Amino acid sequence: MTIQVQFWSYFKDLTGCSEATEELPAGATIGDLVARLHARFPKLVSMHNSTLIAVGVEYQNKEHVLKDGDQVSLFPPVQGG
Q: Contact at 8 Å (CB) between 22 and 36?
């Protein structure tokens, strides 16, 4: 299945791009996707514990099962002032 990934804020700097496409087997989870992204973009590993992940407009955990065509967004914690 094909998953579109969007990187936000300084995650664009860590990956060198604003989006990527990943091919994953049916039944793959966000955890599987993150492992693949860490292998492809090693600088993301340093943000592992503070990465927010959304599928569409809903935050999801690493056990969430992805579907073909899902759009996944990775971004740092939101800060306000």
A: yes
DSSP 63: T
* 2-75 CATH: 3.10.20.30
Give the bridge partners for 28, in sequence order.
none
Indicate the domain borders of the chain.
2-75
Position 2: which residue type? Answer: T
* Amino acid at residue number 18: S
For residues 47 and 14, the answer to whether their CB atoms sit within 8 Å is: yes
First to last CA, the chain: 40
17-50 pLDDT, tens per residue?
A: 999 999 999 999 999 999 999 999 999 999 988 8
